[in-house]
Amino acid sequence: MTKNDNANGATNESQATAVGAKERPAPQVIPVILAGGVGNRLWPLSREAHPKQFLALLGPRSLVQETLLRYADRRHFAPPIVITNDDTRFILADQVQEIGQGDATLLLEPMGRGTAPAITLAALLAMGQDADAILVVAPSDHVISDVSAFRASLAIALSAAAADHLVTFAVVPQRPETGYGYIQRGAALPGIDGAYRIDAFVEKPDADRARALIQEGSHFWNSGMFVFRARVYLDELRRFMPEIITAMEAALAGRHEDLGFLRIGTDAFAACPAISIDYAVMERTQRACTVTLDAGWSDIGSWSELWRVAECDSAGNATSGDVMLRDSRDCLVIGDHGLRPSSPPTTRCWWRRWIRCRRCVRSWHNCGMRIAPS
């Protein structure tokens, strides 16, 4: 073989390699939406039979619908896997259809076992679709007001996940907060601009500790959202808690379709330990990293938080539904039953018996509580 033959052979081989690399499909990016929460933090508006992810708290669409629509572009995202439970399955199915997301896989958990088993189910399903699939794991009841900023952070997270890192989002804190866990951000991750190592996970602090964390400057809110390859997540989980994978594989082995829902084996699922992904994997693995998120994020975990993220008038009042206000400031008022004629001033409120109900302007009573004569 001549020197030119060798050169031509090398050129042909490099061209074939380049063509093969070009034709290799990009990994699927599969959203995994966790929609099985019981919604007890916004009671009585949010209840076990109708938890907050299915409520339209900030507009015409529910929180789960807004979450799904963030991943609706099929040029970039595969059809989502949505995990919920028996009690809310038909509410979920209706809301998914309303926004044209009928290609979603609706996976039913027989009972709550925490985020690690739920995500493991999704990872095993995703591996059946694409061995290199990347999961974007998101709770269904979070608010993200700046979608453009979120997409920018997500692009960084996808790059880190493609390099086999397990990514969580670190939310820029707006105030000392005792209701969230914190992430201590470490050094920049080499080769991926905007990604950082994680120095520590911090449990929900008390008020003094929360103020100290904010002042220190390197601590961020733990968002509970993740991006990683399904394969890498399962590899790390197999190192730390292989019993979860064993149980979830057995549960999926017993899966079957039921009216458009995917049911799994109840006994195998029940045998799985109940644990969060943070405890099972993220706080143990050396592959964890974080991407900063400054996109108006909130988990709406309290009435005060709902007021903060809602649109307020010049007096700081946020209202929804049929509401009348007078001399009110910094209030959150939700009227979902319409205004009612007031009862005589001599009535007493059943909800708080020590408070007298009084006529308001135009003789309308709109507290929504049952009232009866004293």
Distance between the termini: 108 Å
> Hey, roughly how much beta strand do the residues contain?
15-25%
Q: Helical element count? A: 11
Order of helices and strands: HEHEHEHEEHEEEHEHHEEHHEEHEEEEEE
The pLDDT mean sits at 84
Class of the largest domain, according to the CATH hierarchy? Alpha Beta
Output the CATH topology of the largest domain.
Spore Coat Polysaccharide Biosynthesis Protein SpsA, Chain A
Major sheet: 5 strands, mixed, barrel
Level of helix content? Answer: 25-40%
CATH level-four homologous superfamily name of the largest domain: Spore Coat Polysaccharide Biosynthesis Protein SpsA, Chain A
Q: How do the strands of the widest beta sheet line up side by side?
A: 6-9-7-8-12
* Class of secondary structure makeup: alpha/beta
| Shape assignment | globular
- Number of domain units: 2
User: Using DSSP, what is the number of strands?
Assistant: 19
Low-confidence parts = 16-21, 342-374
Walk me through this protein's architecture.
This protein is of the alpha/beta class and 374 residues long. The protein folds into 2 domains: 27-301, Alpha-Beta Complex (Spore Coat Polysaccharide Biosynthesis Protein SpsA, Chain A); 310-373, no CATH class. 32% of the residues lie in helices and 24% in strands. The chain has 11 helices and 19 strands. The protein has helices spanning 3-23, 63-69, 89-98, 115-129, 147-162, 207-216, 230-240, 242-253, 266-270, 277-282, 303-309, and strands at 29-34, 81-85, 105-109, 134-139, 143-144, 166-171, 182-188, 195-202, 219-229, 256-258, 261-263, 288-293, 297-298, 318-321, 332-335, 340-341, 347-349, 364-365, 371-373. The strands form 5 sheets. It has a 5-stranded mixed barrel. Strand 2 (81-85), helix 3 (89-98) and strand 3 form a beta-alpha-beta unit. The termini are far apart. 34% of the residues are buried. Mean pLDDT is 84; it is low at 16-21 and 342-374.
